[in-house]
Amino acid sequence: MSETQTPPKTLQYRIDGADDAPVLILGPSLGTTWHMWDRQIGELSARWRVIRFDLPGHGGAPAHAAGSIGELAERLLATLDLLGVQRFGYAGCSIGGAIGIELALRHPHRVASLALVAASPRFGTADEFRQRGVVVRTNGLDPMARSAPERWFTGGFAAAQPAIVEWAVQMVRTTDPGCYIAACEALAAFDVRAELSRVGVPTLVLVGSEDQVTGPAEARTLVAGIPDARLALVPGASHLAPVEQPAAVTDLLAHHFDTAWNDTLAAIPVPQAAPATSAPVAPVAEIAPAAPEQPVAVSYGRPDPYDTGMKIRREVLGDAHVDRATVAADDFTGDFQELITRYAWGEVWSREGLDRRTRSCVTLTALLAGGHLDELAFHTRAALRNGLTPAEIKEVLLHAAVYCGVPAANSAFKVAQAVIREETTPRA
């Protein structure tokens, strides 16, 4: 057994089990540490070399935030490369499951088999996770910590196990806020619904029957999309099923990884040129051929900024706002919506000269000066998403009051205050 802290481009990890055993990776949920798998380790480490990892800023890990699920997957692979691990089984819970899907899609030759616990091809909506980041940036992690038990456990378990509930709360409270926010942003951008058919490894989709975060509906979406997947429903468990129903989860994982590896190895010979590895070298899953290339429009002028503009517009204003604007567009307003997307967002907001925080400061000042209170409301929300705190927004409005007029600032303060209260209040 060993523990270590590692450089920024790798992850903090812990190893249990024999050095020559096949390797099984266990990935944590957002706000937890590798200890969420403690009750599986006794049995699993008797069969496998179990490697658990912490997300950045979790469990005392270095607070080097990762901005995407892909980056987290790459850091895990870098960690495994240092350990000499090439081929492995992987089980991950929630965001840990997202990392597993990413590995299976981008690095199929590394993943022998996969288990997705409380996972989803898309976690809620991007707006939900960005709003969670706003709450943490404003109030710290205490609101997330206090609400964690109701998200993670059934009511009966929480009432019967107060020590575990307190452990869960403390895990969240001791997480680095910046890394938590970055993980929320990573989940906001994660959406692999259109790619599930390319997951080419045997997959167990495991979900608690009472999970209200990523429940049976999300699990069935994964099973329907992944060609070689089966569903396991754990009765009486919510989001952290490995903690709430440890024996059932351990049995399901052990059976899945035993069966998946043995079936795969028996079906196809091991390639002779395979690199040395501490895990059993299973054949690479066949990848479906790429779709025929589609004709590409050739432009001899500047690239059309529309797609870039739409991406930035959604990231800054939120999907819900943009969807309302685009759905409401008709023959009269459609061209105007296209102009906004292409030039305001695709040409100006995309420029590198100012970061988004600074652009939000400029925008708030301009809208206050012009008395554009409707736009001020959704750009206050955008400013929070772009990383400004309520205190910083207050300073922008105070500064603008000197140069743009007290009456204009008075109206702006009322609008901004209402938005800030709404956005920084934790949602049920």
What does this structure look like?
- By secondary structure, the chain is an alpha/beta fold.
- It is built from 18 helices and eight strands.
- It has helices at residues 38-44, 69-82, 95-106, 126-139, 142-152, 155-160, 162-173, 177-189, 216-225, 241-244, 246-267, 306-317, 319-328, 334-349, 356-370, 373-385, 390-404, 406-424; strands spanning 2-4, 13-16, 23-27, 49-53, 88-93, 111-117, 203-208, 229-234.
- An eight-stranded mixed sheet has the order 1-2-4-3-5-6-7-8, with helices on both faces.
- Strand 1 and strand 2 form a beta hairpin.
| Shape descriptor | elongated
Mean pLDDT: 88
Order of strands in the sheet with the most strands?
A: 1-2-4-3-5-6-7-8
Percent helix:
40-55%
Total number of helices: 18
What series of H and E elements makes up the topology? EEEHEHEHEHHHHHEHEHHHHHHHHH
**Approximately what portion of the residues adopt beta-strand conformation?**
5-15%
Classification by helices and strands: alpha/beta
**Any low-confidence stretches, pLDDT <50, length ≥5?**
264-300
Tell me how many strands there are: 8
**Over the alpha carbons, how many angstroms does the gyration radius reach?**
24 Å
State the major sheet: 8 strands, mixed
Distance from N terminus to C terminus (CA atoms, Å) equals 40 Å
